[in-house]
Description:
mainly alpha
Amino acid sequence: MINKEDVNLQPGQPGVGQEIYRIVQTTFRILLGAFLLFAGTSHLTVARAEFLAQVPTWLPLHGDLVVVLSGIAEIVLGLALIFLVKQRVLVGLAAAAFFVLIFPGNISQYVNRIDAFGLNTDQARFNRLFFQPVLVLWALWSTGAWRVFFKKKAES
C-alpha cells in the first residue's frame, strides 16, 4: 500500500491512481492517432479499392473523391491526436464526429453485402457495425472530450 508520505505528495497534486489513469488515457489517444494515420495512408495507397467498396452508392459525390477526402481527414485527425495535446478535447470531438459521419459506409457495406477488408459474411459485416461506437467512445474518452457531455451541474 502506498502512503502519501511515501510519494511526497503536496496538496493539489494528482494521486498515483490519477497519474496512471492519465498515462493510460494518453497512450490510448496516441494509439488511436496512429491507427488513424495508418488508415488514412491506406485510403490513399494500398487499400483504396477496399475503402471505395464501402462508399454508399447514394452519396452524391464520386466514390474516389470520398475515399481521398476521408483519408486526408484521417491523417489530419491522427496527427492532431498525437501532437495537438492542448487541443485534445476539440480534436477528440472532431474524431468522434468523423466516426459518426463515416458510419453509413459500414451500414451500406452490411446492407448491400459488400465484401471488403475480409468482411465476407453477413455476420462479419454485422459484427463490424458494433466497432464504430467503440471508436467514438475511444476518441471521446482518450481525449477527455467525454466530459463535455457529462459536466457537473455546479459547473454549468
